[in-house]
Structure formats: C-alpha cells, structure tokens
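Study this fold:
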Amino acid sequence: MIIPADSIDNETLQSLVESFVLREGTDYGEVEISMQEKVDQIIEQLRLGDIVIEYSEEHESVNIIKKP
C-alpha cells in the first residue's frame, strides 16, 4: 500500500526518513553529505513523487521505494 507523504505528520515523516537513511548506509560517493542533508533530499524526492512510502501489511513494515 502506498502512503502519501503529505498525509503523514511532519515529525513522523522526519523520523521515518531518518530511519530509512540509517538503514541505507552513508556511502554517498566522492562527497560526503550530512545526515540532515540526506534526509532533506529524501523528503524533497517524496514531495516531487520520485519515490514513495510503501507500507507492507504482510510484514507490518514501512519502506521508501522508487515510484513503481
């Protein structure tokens, strides 16, 4: 199930994205960026619709994926 990012409270969205960034690791290429910069990038991609929040009822988990 796709969950619209704008339907999630800002504080909850921030926590969800921080958790995603921590799970994905910190290898950003040649230039290292801060955690907050990466979180901001992910939130912007969510707002643009490039990526979406997916809830799995089967696994009772949330993930951020490329838009199908």
Summary: Residues 58 and 67 are 20 Å apart (CA to CA). The chain has a mean pLDDT of 92.
